[in-house]
Specification:
This protein is an alpha/beta fold. The protein is 39% helix and 18% strand.
């Protein structure tokens, strides 16, 4: 297997810190050693790093992760400088420049800003730098937060057109059950589709130092399958794990669509990953099959229910009637109008909204199917 030309590696707080919750300098050095070796092999690397809040706890003397937003953001502000400097110092010893990029979902919600972020990352990689990306927790609000860096890493992988996305975790990968509770649980080596059976295996609890669990990693892997980017979830503290995974070793759980599967383009990935869903539409069984099996647009007649308040042009989540996420897309009706037209054929809608008003609820060109 050829070495990937570009890797995005996401490392979580629970992997970066020691048992006391302080930044583990030895681990950062080991990780940067691996990055340096990959760069020497001709592979460009982007690091998506959690850990600012955990570092800030140590700086500001919090005995445990604070619960209030002001203290969390103070920890992020105090810890971000220490986190980035830790990477920069070690990489500089190896002659590799390091660049910090802080993002919120608000920064990439605008299509132009999304493209600007991609241009900046591409230029840094051209210049031989290793970008270290983190969510701007100092400024993020709940509405515009990524929620965890697993999805931020997926967004970055989509932005830069990565050949491989590696989630360096505190678990070996996806198991059939929680191995801490079920001794018969076995590691799943390959997944080609993140369906209901796969998501049912996830245990959503994170650690005291992080916010993500297996559920968040599966959401990111599902997005990467749609993007055509192979994703590996593996234990980040395994020696040389990043280099071995890049070299094709079978480690952890690899998520990859079957060969020849269609991949979504950049605009749809932006819709699905960068935008904040303002509401939800649930499809009946026939519409769900049409979308999943035939790539059809969503017609109002197939919309079984709608929730949330949104305008025409806002992004909505698309689910089955049972609540399973199918994808995300741009609604062509407001929530008020969607409530009026759901379940109706286009010829019926045209009678009271006119021919121009009779349109798909979500057009397939505006829909990212997970």
């Amino acid at each position: 297997m050829p070495m990937p030309g570009l890797i995005v590696a996401k490392v979580g707080s629970s992997t970066l810190v020691d048992e006391e919750g302080a930044l583990d300098a030895a681990y950062v050095r080991a990780l940067c050693d691996q990055v340096s070796r990959l760069v020497g092999m001709g592979t460009r690397v982007v690091v998506v790093s959690s850990g600012a809040v955990a570092c800030g706890r140590d700086v500001l003397g919090f005995p445990e992760r604070p619960a209030d937003m002001a203290s969390l953001q103070a920890c992020a502000a105090a810890g971000q400088a220490r986190l980035t400097q830790a990477y920069a110092d070690v990489l500089a010893e190896r002659g590799i420049p390091c660049a910090q990029i802080l993002l919120t979902r608000r920064d990439v919600m605008d299509r132009e800003a999304f493209l600007n972020a991609r241009t900046t990352l591409a230029r840094l990689l051209e210049l031989g730098a290793v970008p270290v990306v983190n969510e701007n927790d100092t400024l993020s609000t709940t509405e515009f937060a990524f929620g965890d860096n697993d999805m931020l890493g997926a967004l970055v992988a989509a932005l830069v057109g990565a050949d491989l996305y590696v989630i360096l975790s505190d678990v070996d990968g996806l198991y059939t059950a929680n191995p801490q509770k079920d001794p018969s649980a076995r590691l799943i080596e390959r997944v080609s589709e993140v369906d209901h059976d796969v998501t049912a295996m996830a245990d959503g609890a994170g650690t005291s130092f992080g916010t993500g669990g297996m559920s968040s990693k599966l959401r990111a892997a599902r997005a990467m399958i749609a993007a055509g980017v192979p994703t590996v979830i593996c234990r980040g503290r395994r020696p040389d794990v990043l280099v071995e995974v890049a070299s094709g070793a079978s480690i952890g759980t690899r998520f990859e669509a079957p060969e020849g599967s269609p991949h979504e383009g950049g605009r749809k990935l932006w819709i699905g990953l960068a935008e904040v869903p303002r509401g939800t539409i649930a499809l009946d069984a026939g519409a769900s099959r049409a979308v999943l099996e035939h790539g059809a647009s969503i017609l109002p007649v197939g919309v079984a229910a709608t929730s949330g308040t949104y305008a025409a042009g806002d992004v909505v989540s698309v689910t089955t009637e049972a609540g399973d996420l199918i994808g995300r897309g741009i609604a062509r009706y407001s929530s008020e109008d969607m409530q009026r037209v759901r379940g109706l054929r286009l010829d019926v809608i045209a009678r009271f909204l006119g021919e121009a008003g009779a349109q798909p609820a979500v057009h397939r060109d505006d829909l990212l199917v997970f």
